[in-house]
Write a structure and sequence with these properties.
The chain has about 160 residues and is mainly beta. About 15% of the residues lie in helices and about 45% in strands. Strands 2, 3, 5, 6, 8 and 10 form a 6-stranded antiparallel β-sheet that branches. A 3-stranded mixed β-sheet has the order 4-1-11, with no helix packed on it. The termini are far apart.
Length: about 160
């Protein structure tokens, strides 16, 4: 067999071995999609933002706004959700009420404060502190919700 033929066979065998090993590796820890069902049982329109861990970017991803008309629901797909995650964080408001976490939470709790702009749609990664000085952005505290019995499936009802 000629040298170029041996080289070609070795390259093919090497690629086959690498592909076989990659296929055998466990997928735990990789990103997947999650879904968040939001249900508005109120007589007024709500604006909801959420934050989740983005496993691809290895950082928080905060996105707003989902607008919920009175007595409607919406399902949101959250891309790149780490399959080891079990919680999402929400912040919402209407004309008469705010749904948020405790800004005076115990210092051992994770910092769930983020900057949001109620007047515009946004998506950012990380803490979002770059918005602190810009007009219209305010710091709010998110609250956590747990999965509803199935991995990556979340439901929250606004009463």
């Amino acid at each position: 067999m000629r040298d170029w033929q041996r080289c070609l066979v070795r390259s093919f065998c090497g690629m086959f071995l690498i592909m076989t090993l990659l296929a055998a590796l466990p997928t735990q820890g990789l990103a997947e999609a999650a879904s968040l069902e939001l249900i508005n049982n109120k007589e007024e329109t709500l604006k909801v933002t959420y934050t989740a861990w983005d496993a691809v970017r290895n950082s928080n991803s905060t996105k707003g706004w989902v607008v919920l008309k009175p007595y409607t629901s919406a399902t949101v797909t959250i891309d790149h959700y780490g399959n080891w995650e079990q919680v999402l964080w929400l912040y919402a408001f209407s004309k008469s009420r705010v749904w948020q976490g405790d800004p005076n939470a115990n210092l051992s709790d994770p910092d769930l404060s983020f900057f949001v702009n109620p007047a515009m749609n946004f998506q950012y990664y990380g803490k979002g502190g770059q918005y602190a000085g810009q007009k219209g952005w305010e710091e709010v505290t998110f609250f956590s919700i747990a999965e509803n019995g199935a991995h990556g499936q979340f439901t929250y009802t606004f009463e």
